[in-house]
Amino acid sequence: QAQLVETGGGLVQAGGSLRLSCAASGRTLRTYYMGWYRQAPGKQRELVAGLTSGGSAKYGDSVKGRFTISVDNAKNTGYLQINSLKAEDTAVYYCAITKSTTWDYVDYWGQGTQVTVSS
To answer: What is the torsional sign of CA 111, 14, 49, 78?
Structure first.
């Protein structure tokens, strides 16, 4: 059974930065596609950044140029670097891994980490 543990969330002022981490155990991240999702109050969970096992990244339109997804295979840990934070980035952020190449489903979810941006 896989376990994903996110850390790094918190309260930050608009314009600031955070780095979220996703430590994986029980599965090897490089054999999965990894994604970072977020869910704001009253909204659906959305995929904001995804990374294929081959290293190709994709981003949601609202975060392009500000978010960067990466994986450290030696540490079996994924990251989401978030820069130029905006109030609308406030949400619970989840990491997830999937064998789906089209992001149709998620095999494993993390528990989530809260990011709150003050304006």
So the answer is: negative
Q: Supply the DSSP string of 16-55, one letter for each residue.
A: --EEEEEEEESS-GGGSEEEEEEE-TTS--EEEEEE-TTS
Q: Determine the Cα angle at 31 with ends 26 and 35, to 5°.
A: 85
The token pair at 42 is 């009253």
DSSP annotation of 31: G
Helix (H) or strand (E) holding 95: strand 91-98
What is the rounded distance in angstroms from the CA atom of residue 106 to the CA atom of residue 54?
Answer: 18
> Rounded to whole angstroms, how far apart are CA atoms 28 and 34?
11
Residue 95, token pair as written in the block: 């990491």
pLDDT digits (tens, 9 = 90+) for 2-60: 999 999 999 999 999 999 999 999 999 999 999 999 999 999 999 999 999 999 999 99
Q: How far out from the chain centre does Cα 116 lie? A: 15
- At 105, the amino acid letter reads Y
